[in-house]
Amino acid sequence: MSLKRILTALMIAASIGSPALSQESGHQGMKHDATAAEPAPSSRAFAEANAKMHKDMDIDFTGNADVDFVRGMIAHHQGAIDMAKVELEYGKDEAIRKLAETIIKVQEGEIKMMKEWLAGHGG
Fold first, then answer.
1. Is residue 11 part of a domain?
2. Which of 6, 9, 31, 98 is deepest in the core (most CB within 10 A)?
3. What is the tens place of the pLDDT at every residue in 15-56?
4. Which DSSP category does 115 fall into?
5. CA-based nearest residue to 30, from 9, 48, 49, 3
6. Is the pTM of this model over 0.70?
7. Domains contained in the chain, number
8. Cβ pair 79, 49 in contact under 8 A
9. CA 13, CA 48: separation in Å to the nearest integer?
């Protein structure tokens, strides 16, 4: 995992008050302020989906631009699906909920196509 991604993941975890980064876990200097308001459940869910997507996008590059693009995009699309599911769980705006449903449908189809393409192209 690249240093930039590690730092991003640490910043996300710290912003959502991850117990893994709290004083109790032995990481001095990365304390969670118990007096600060806890982030909303949707914020935690979005941060988790974002961190997972970035972790999954950290692929071993093959030198084949087509394969590398498709492998990275599968993880990227899955991240969009995961975030759309958070919207459907917590969101209220009907237009945005409809957008989330469309994202899920379209990107699931694209993931299927990309996986089939990879299977036929040594990915």
1. no
2. 9
3. 554 444 434 433 344 444 555 688 899 999 999 999 999 999
4. H
5. 9
6. no
7. 1
8. yes
9. 8
In a domain, 99, yes or no: yes
Q: Is residue 108 part of a domain?
A: yes
DSSP 35: T
Residue with tokens 């694209």: 110
- In angstroms, what CA-CA distances link 81 with 18, 35, 52, 59, 74? 23, 33, 12, 19, 11
Q: Which two tokens stand for residue 27?
A: 């990481």
Separation of CA 30 from chain center: 23
Full residue range of the structural domain in which residue 110 is found: 41-120
